[in-house]
Each structure stands twice: as structure tokens, then as C-alpha cells.
Amino acid sequence: MEKERKWICMAISMLIAGILTGMILYRQSVLVEAKVEKTQEKLAEEVLRFHVLANSDSKEDQRLKMKVKEEILVYLKQKLPNAKSVEEVKKWTGSHKKELEQVADQTIREEGYSYSVKAELTESYFPQKTYGDVTFPAGEYEALRIKIGKAKGHNWWCVLYPNLCFVDATNAVVPKKSKQKLKTVLDEEEYEMVTATSKFKIKWFFFGSK
Q: How far apart are CA 43 and CA 47, in angstroms?
């Protein structure tokens, strides 16, 4: 009987310990997600993304999307001023939508299609995306959007400010100049999160914020 009591006490202790551990881990998880959400909201105020939507998911339309993307980026690389803030970039793109549409339209015609094209500044939901060693949390961001035809196909996106559009997603490192701009709008912990998301979450999850 005494042995059974010990086993019961041990089982109850383990159950209580498990419940308490679960509560602690859940609380830490909530705190981490809140931090991610706060960082995303702050980033959304300081970045402008670039979004190209294909007419459809057909092989031809997806190829055309990439061709339009490439020509728009060539135009932006040549014409977009070396802006010091996201507001400057938004203002410039907002006043050059017609020119962007013309570049896209010419590309579409040269490729043998007659799709309409529309350039707009709009807010869109973006999934989590990594550029080199920088990760942007999922959420709503303002973007320069190029819509081709029905715009029902898979899309392509990058960050126009700070400029990450010319960074290969498989590349290991984002240019220091682009990172420096992120550093000016994020605190140390937030910057650590977007430059090493998994390590940040592990540290925060088990040790908490300092």
C-alpha cells in the first residue's frame, strides 16, 4: 500500500510539473509571437515591397511575369533615386506609375501578348520571406504592385526599400547598406530577430527577453 501511495504521489507530481512546464512554455510562446507581431508592424512602416502578379499559373504566363519583373527592375535600377527614406520611394513610385505601366506594357507586347497592366501602391499580406540572412515576418506591408491581365497567377515579390530586389534568396548575406537602414528603425532585439529568426526565437523562448 505504501509503495502504491509513493507511485501515486510521484505520478501526481509529474503531472503537476508537466502542467506548469506547459503553462510556462505557452506563455513564452505568446510573448515571442507578440514580439514578432510588433516587429512586423514596425518594419511595415519602414519598408516598401515590390509585387508582380501573373495573369495565370500557365507556364507561358509565369515566364512573362518574370520577364516583366526583370524589365521593371532594370528601369528602377536606372531611374529610382538613391532615397534616404521609404516615404521618398513611395512618393517617387506613386508619381511614376504611368511610366512603370509603359515599361511593363511594352514588354508584354514584345513578348506577343495583349494583356492589360496596372501599377498601384497598395497594402497586401505577405508570407514570411527570407532574403539572404534577413527574414521579414508575415503580415501586411505596403507594396508597389504590378498586375498583369487577370492577375490570378502565382506572384513574385521582393523588398524595394531598403533595396533587396537584387539579392538572390540563396545568397548568404544582404548588403551592409541595406542592413544599416534596418538597424536605424529596429531595436537590438528586433534586429537580431530579422537577421537570425530561429536563433532569436530559441533564445527568447527559453530565457525570455532581457
A: 6
Q: What is the pTM of this model?
A: 0.72
Q: How many residues does the chain have?
A: 210
Cis bond before residue 81 (omega within 30° of 0): no
Q: 30 with 37: CB under 8 angstroms?
A: no
**Distance (Å, rounded) from C-alpha 72 to C-alpha 169?**
19
Q: Residue 111 gets which letter from DSSP? A: T
The torsion angles phi and psi of 139, rounded to 5 degrees, stand at 155, -170
- pLDDT tens readout for residues 152-205: 999 888 888 888 776 655 555 677 777 777 777 777 777 777 776 455 444 444
* Strands 134-136 vs 117-126: parallel, antiparallel or unpaired: unpaired
Q: Which phi and psi angles does 48 have, rounded to 5°? A: -130, 125
- DSSP characters for 193-205? HHHSHHHHHHHHH
Residues 140 and 125: beta-carbon distance below 8 Å: yes
Query: What stretch of H or E contains 58?
Result: none
Cell (9 digits) for 56: 495565370
Q: Are 63 and 159 in contact (CB under 8 A)?
A: no
Whether the CB-CB separation of 135 and 194 falls below 8 Å is answered with yes
